[in-house]
Amino acid sequence: MKAALPLRWLILPCATLVFASHAGAATSANTDTPVRGGTLNLVVDPEPPTLVDLTNTAVPTLKVSTKVTEGLLTYDFALHPEPQLATSWSISSDGLQYTFHLRHGVKWHDGQDFTSADVAYSIELLKRVHPRGKGTFANVAEVRTPDAFTAILVLSKPSPFLIKAFSASESPIVPKHIYEGTDPFSNQNNNAPIGTGPFKFVKWVRGSYIEYDRNPDYWDKPKPYVDKIIVRLIPDAAARAIAFETGAADLGGDTPVPLADLARLKQNARLAVETRGYEYEAGVARVEFNLGNRYLKVPAVREAIARAIDRKVIEKAIYYGYATEVSGPIIASSPYYDAAPTPYPFDIDKANALLDAAGLPRGSDGVRFAITVDPLPISDIPQRTAAYLRSALAKIGIAVTIRNQDLPSYLRRIYSDRDFDVAINGMSNLFDPTVGVQRLYWSQSIRKGVPFTNASGYSNPRVDQLLEQAAVEPNEAARVQQFREFQQIVERDLPDIDLVEPQQVTVYNKRVHDHTTSPDGLDSNFADVYLSQ
Amino acid sequence: MISSRTTRVVRRLRRTGAQAVPTVIAVVVLNFVLLQLVPGDAADVLAGESGSATAETMAMMRHHFGLDLTLWQQLVAYLNHLAHFSLGFSPRFNTPVMQLIMSRLPNTLILMVSALIFAVVAGVVIGVAMATWAGRWPDRVLSFIALVLYSMPGFWLALMAIVLFSVKLGWLPSGGEMTLGADLSGWDWLADRVSHAVLPALALASFFVAIYARLTRVAMLEVQRQDFVRTAQAKGLHPMIVTLRHVLRNALIPITTVAGMHLGNLLGGAAVIETVFSWPGLGRLALEAVQGRDYNVLLGVLLLSSLLVIASNVLVDVLHAWLDPRIALH
Question: What H or E segment, with its residue span, contains residue A140?
């Protein structure tokens, strides 16, 4: 659920400063020589529906898929590309041709050779069946394979974000000889994958564990260092915390334990936490309005609600400090971030005055009007945010009813039936605002029945124009300007209120080293991971 | 006598079988219709989990799940599968439903049966003790314990047991059904499995221990007042023999009735305990099927559960006939 950014999965790379200090610590850890051997117990929840992130990009799927199925590129923490299956690459000056030179001597786990035919096939498959492949690869007209180790993507229009889309977690390269001529949704490779990665799939006992063995023929020898990965499926959050304490779990990402338990685990001498490794999927938590509602379509009402919310309380009481305030939809670590503060700071008196002026006086019971709030039913954080909203809005005379339901019911209500007043959710920026942010504000993504699109019904021609320009803008400076103006407009228009950028946390046993070496954190291939005994 | 009882058992089984078929079909159709009323479908779930979707991928998934068929076509297809003794295919798990259920069923049966046996044995022992010392301090103390077990949620008790026995004392594993990655055989294998089953079985049993204890106490006190007990005591039989042979045996009738009904309840309670202990059982599968809107799997689990309840009812009937010859298997 990378994109949905179910808050639990939201990340918050709080700015470059933090990266720099962490990077220093990581370097000192690297001075130890990696050692071979051992079993890594990785905890994952919920159970992935499939083991390949081709047709499904749920957060747990990404964690398991990437150990077996690799991508063309990997990235450093600033999202600059680095080699994986491609050893070098170039982009033509008009931005219409991406040439990848592929690694020689790579074999699939079944012994077949990896070639450019696999790359061409995978890109075409991704464009067709990947949950956002149609958007990401929209401008890819064809993939040429002049020889077995060269793949050239030919674009009809520039896609300035495309070079960030080739990680194993976003665009997996799958074996053509296994998928060709089959239904990619039901191919048995999704249950028992063949890949090029450092680990080979062994066994999946549903509801219990997934087992991977070291690939002795991996192209990047002497990696990998770990003999075996056991992916433990522990559905209960408190039980996961206990598994870390007893040593049954070594490593878990996306805040695997309740935030309330984190302080206790940090006291444990054997355990530590890491906050990097979420830059590739970071996003923001938000309050989304249904602009069709008779009260919420009034700008002054939305401004009053915005002024009644104290983001500091949300950051401290709901996220235990694992979040930073934001005023717009783009995360602070993005080059397109606009640092201007929100035009509507916390001010209860002003909020009440706005509602009085809007002709919405308090009734005899002190209530001006009533609305319903639907929190995204993933983790308890949206629910607790809803509870805060109820008390905050009571102060300005808006009565809030919180409605709880399970995930499919929520998605139906918000995106198909549009039968809601206010929704609380989180949305990942993904690797670029054109992919992760545009869908929430572009009038053409008001699409019934498609989750994580423009649910508010917001439509502003200038915003549409800016987003459409930025999607194909080859000039980086111009693109920054377009996104800044876009942010200022939506912060003023308030189709939603962006609250905080949550910081996800990785919990690990100190015997595990080099688990977080890239911005996709535990979604990397784990070739570098080693265990001290 | 034996042979007449055997024919009665056979007759009873045959009749149950004849009743079971329409019951099961009704269960399937009713569940199928009820599930259609739940908002959202499997494609919504997969899109929701993935965090992105396009109208085209949603349509592809609906086709893959057979959701583009009419309700009627879906129901007929499902019943057709059943007629061929197949539970169909789970598109979400990408696996035949039968295979999914069979991989989970043994784990759940181990948990349920051991919990039920423990609950009945412990409950009866405590109940007998309470009845024997009715109104005196052992009765008061045990009543209090039973009240605590009755009112405490099983999952909380489970978590507290994990904290004590797994985290603090380190005696028992905190979850799972076996030690992963360890190749065990023979006694080591059995000991490993038992050590993993102890805490979840006890946690699942806790609530039922309280019920059986109170039930036994009441039933024993009731029977104790009857004439044949006074006769037995007047004959000069040892009080222990009177308690066990005359009183307890008759008091067991309501307990077995309730225990039979509890088999279904245990399946529900198991979903919670299985989650807390990461126990790969049927309850969790059912829960995941609901959350994933995977109706084939859910219908399969419900069908199996209804068969289980029917079977346990037969078992209780037979047990009653054995406990009390006056009860005829009709």
Answer: strand A140-147
